[in-house]
């Protein structure tokens, strides 16, 4: 009799854990809506599970304003190319109980409404070091932004090394160049 009680209790515990793990891994999204998104022409550095490049987005009523939100995950079906501002139509899925290491929001591309190249020589700022993290990597003599974009530092290469070595926060001002190259214009 005592063994039956232990077996029943053990089976109950396992069933509870199994149902909990299914809800943790997600399932059906709790809310789905169709939204318009604007994606900025450059990615910014940020921290998710690790240091990474993030999309800067505006959603629906925010489009055209000065404020941009960081979006840490990929947009399913979207092929991002730096140097262009995109207007998208997407499904926005919201999970009320996302896994701890994932966003509650997922976007799925429905349509690219426009893709506008930014003006030649348009400056933009990217944080190269902050929060104790250096986002600049090196492969031989070339510098990269998290191994994704080559940094053409030209006459500022020595300054870049000095700034990264001696300052807790460093921001670079850049312009786009062909082939995923960012031309460093100034440092602060």
Automatic annotation (TrEMBL):
Residues making up the signal peptide according to the UniProt record: 1-24
Keyword annotations of the record: Signal
Matching InterPro entries: DUF4377
All copies of domain DUF4377, residue ranges: 39-115
Name of the protein in question: DUF4377 domain-containing protein
Organism: Christiangramia aestuarii
